[in-house]
Design brief:
Layout lengths: L2 H18 L7 H18 L3 H7 L2 E26 L2 E28 L2 H8 L3 E3 L6 E5 L7 H4 L3 E10 L10 E4 L3
Parallel strand pairs: 4-5
Antiparallel strand pairs: 1-2, 2-5, 2-6, 3-6
Length: 181
């Protein structure tokens, strides 16, 4: 086995090990508690966040998305879709990447569906892919400023609370799939 194959095999094994703890879905009460804690942090970081969230048709909240990789990377997180403050479903976010990924990091995400049409498109999709739709605006850091152009997008995603050694906060290509109830 050559050196590159060995490195790739070790990287895949390390990622599999890192994500094996995430393979079992959390219970609904666990996800709900994590969502509420993430929303509290989100509202505390921006004076207009609560008002913006109240204007949204729905919010998809992923309290903790873990990304890990060593050449080949992956990410995973569980969250809830809230419509007018009520949880209507549970979802997972998954993604894979190849290239210059090295390290482990965590972040939180709040995705606001600003229009009923955007929410309906999400609800009617089997696997919704973030970043494929040009109507998604990504705001990096919950305390970051956003402009009126950002607010005109049908979907506004906030990425915040980044911790770890991967500086990539891209949502592009991440798939969101409904968890079985």
């Amino acid at each position: 086995m050559n050196r590159n194959s060995l490195v790739l095999t070790e990287a895949v094994a390390a990622i599999a090990f890192a994500f094996s703890a995430l393979a079992v879905a959390a219970s609904s009460p666990e996800i709900n508690a994590r969502v509420e804690a993430a929303l509290s942090r989100f509202y505390a970081q921006g004076p207009n966040h609560r008002e913006l969230a109240n204007k949204a048709s729905a919010m998809l909240v992923f309290p903790s998305v873990t990304k890990a990789g060593a050449g080949v990377g992956g990410e995973y997180g569980e969250g809830a879709l809230q419509v007018h403050g009520k949880t209507v479903g549970y979802y997972k976010l998954t993604g894979a990447s190849a290239g210059a990924t090295l390290g482990v990091a965590r972040r939180s995400e709040v995705i606001l569906f600003m229009t009923d049409a955007a929410l309906e498109k999400f609800m009617n999709s089997k696997d919704w892919t973030v970043g494929i739709d040009a109507g998604v605006a990504v705001v990096k850091g919950a305390g970051a400023q956003y402009d009126s152009e950002t607010l005109r997008k049908p979907v506004v995603a906030f990425v915040f609370g980044e911790k770890g050694l991967i500086a990539d906060v891209s949502l592009e290509g991440a798939k969101v799939t409904k968890l079985p109830q």
